[in-house]
Design goal:
It is built from four helices and no strands. By secondary structure, the chain is mainly alpha-helical. It has one domain.
Length: 132
């Protein structure tokens, strides 16, 4: 159930991020900042929730492949988790750099970091939908 909630949340947040980026492109930087600050807070809460489930002993490797939403990918759950983490772990740091550079008005760094953040965000989203 928690996995479905995360999948739905990330899909919705992706749409919100796209809307926020559109606001920046339209010159509405104030709204862009508010939207992306909310996304950052929500994402942080989700990461904290994930860490709590791990500390409480949830074994993600024990998830059954048959229960996956789309079930496309390797037939070993540990392999699926490792591939997903190749995107989700760097995403955390990319989000921090992107948020920091935006807050500090470091426009050049902000625009460069967006490319990496978008890559890792999409990789995380796609692997989550296909694998879990």
């Amino acid at each position: 159930m928690y996995i479905r909630f995360l999948q739905t949340s990330v899909c919705l947040l992706t749409l919100v991020i796209i809307y926020g980026i559109k606001q920046a492109k339209n010159g509405n930087i104030a709204l862009h900042r508010k939207i992306n600050a909310a996304v950052l807070i929500i994402t942080t809460v989700a990461v904290v929730g994930l860490v709590i489930t791990l500390v409480m002993g949830w074994d993600y490797k024990a998830m059954k492949i048959e229960e996956s939403l789309l079930n496309i990918g390797p037939q070993n759950m540990e392999t699926r988790i490792n591939i997903h983490r190749c995107f989700s772990s760097p995403l955390f740091f990319a989000l921090i750099v992107t948020a920091y550079s935006g807050i500090k008005n470091k426009v050049s760094l902000h625009k460069k970091s967006i490319k990496y953040t978008a890559f890792f965000w999409m990789g995380t989203l796609i692997t989550a939908l296909l694998f879990f």
